[in-house]
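Homework help board

Subject: predicted structure for assignment chain

Our instructor gave us this sequence and asked us to write out the predicted structure in token form, then describe one feature. I got the tokens but I'm not sure how to describe them. Can anyone check?
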Amino acid sequence: MSQAKTNARRCAVQALYQWQMTGNSLKSIEMDFFEEDRLKGAQKSYFNEIFHGVPKQLDVIDEALAEFVDREVEKIDPVERAILRLGVYELINYLKTPYRVIINEGVNLAKFFGAEGSHKYVNSILDKVARKKRSVEIKTKNNSK
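My token output:
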């Protein structure tokens, strides 16, 4: 996985968090990131895709999460919620990216931004979503061992 994509995810989590907390428009949040040069070292096109993609598919993403979380999606810690939403978005839309890579990136984001131990929660939820949304990929990987 490229560092530029990892950096794009990191920025997207921050931007999604800001969007969730402020309700500001995606455009204005995105402009802030560009103006403050916060996307240095990030793959800007990927940031753009995932940052705009999550809100567009929010209902589908939150429905996928709701099946496996222990509370209403809106009651999940906002940092964890942003990370989970991003992870689910990627699991659904980026089938060429191995599910393990997406889960690992989510875990690393939770370790970086989340509360102590939040990476275990993120890992657990993304793993369950992956088992449902990527079952064919997981079965193929397990059968090839």
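Reply (TA_rk): Your tokens look well-formed. For the description, you could write something like this. The chain has one domain: 3-134. That's the kind of observation they're looking for.
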